[in-house]
Amino acid sequence: MTDDPPLADAVDDTAADIATMEIRGAATIAAAAADALAAQARETAADTPAAYRRAMRHAGRRLYDTRPTAVSLPNALRYTLGRMEGDDVEALRESVLAATTAFTDRLDRAQNDLGRVGANRLRDGDTVMTHCHSTDALACVEHAVDQGKEVSAIVKETRPRNQGHITAAELRGMGVDVTLVVDSAARRYLDDADHVLVGADSIAADGGVVNKIGTSGLAVNARERGVPIMVAAQTIKLHPDTLTGHTVEIEMRDEAEVIDASAREEIGEITVENPAFDVTPPRYVDAIVTESGQFPPESIVTLMRELFGESADRPWEAPDGTNADSADTDATEPTT
């Protein structure tokens, strides 16, 4: 095994900031990872193609290991390192730099483009029902309003953190008429809705949607009522490593969000569970809206392959799946 290739300072600094959540949010994490890879591409002193590839994979591994379950992070690595190609060091360098530039440009345009796509599904006079707080979902409404459409909203509170209050405030800022309802009233008010509009934390290869807890139940009720469900999510939320949403680990949050110490003492010994997300099966979703267009859930895997390669691709690893820093050695390349 050779010594680890040296890392650019930007890679170590970015990895540390992602790990400590100084850098957070899907788009911010993805952009920071792409910028760090660009720094590595420029600064690495490798003088053979094999050494250069190993240095770039080492940088990718360093970034990936910080928060591997943050979907946007491996997707940034897939997009950029998956486009690394060339027969000499300079060609490899230029391919990585071109890929990082294309990726960050795509991020800069993504939400605006997504909003325009989603707005086309909304008609003048429509009422949307929302759940939780999603800037991607709100972008669809904002573009519809900018097009001169009159849109109203039924906003679920989304307990226990009440993120629906944030959604309500932002919709009012757009001039949208808002009705705020408790979560358990959703079924009653679905008869007044033309669309259910939600975001996503990640989307599995089968089109299953992982989103704030309560999304799945809302989708089931909406389907029974005949109300179409639109999911707004940038492509950095696509999860190529996950065949179905049910294989995604669901975060369990602090019970203090649900019950305080005095209430717990009054009730007695109980188990309190507070899952952050649930999985909506693709059969309950009508359309997934991205910056690349709108897709039925069963077609989302095609978009994943187009953007990120085959679902098993991990270009920060060696082609044979071994550690990124232990392959591609030859007798002529340096070990620094």
From TrEMBL:
Keyword Isomerase: yes
Biased composition (Acidic residues): 327-336
InterPro entries: IF-2B-related, IF_2B-like_C, Initiation_fac_2B_a/b/d, M1Pi_N, NagB/RpiA_transferase-like, R15Pi
Protein name: Ribose 1,5-bisphosphate isomerase
One of the Pfam families matching this protein, by short name: IF-2B
Keyword Kinase attributed: no
NCBIfam families hit by this protein: eIF-2B_rel, ribulose_e2b2
Family: Belongs to the eIF-2B alpha/beta/delta subunits family. R15P isomerase subfamily.
Disordered, as annotated region: 311-336
Molecular function GO terms recorded: ribose 1,5-bisphosphate isomerase activity; S-methyl-5-thioribose-1-phosphate isomerase activity
A biological process term (GO) from this entry: L-methionine salvage from methylthioadenosine
Keyword terms of this UniProt record: Carbohydrate metabolism, Isomerase
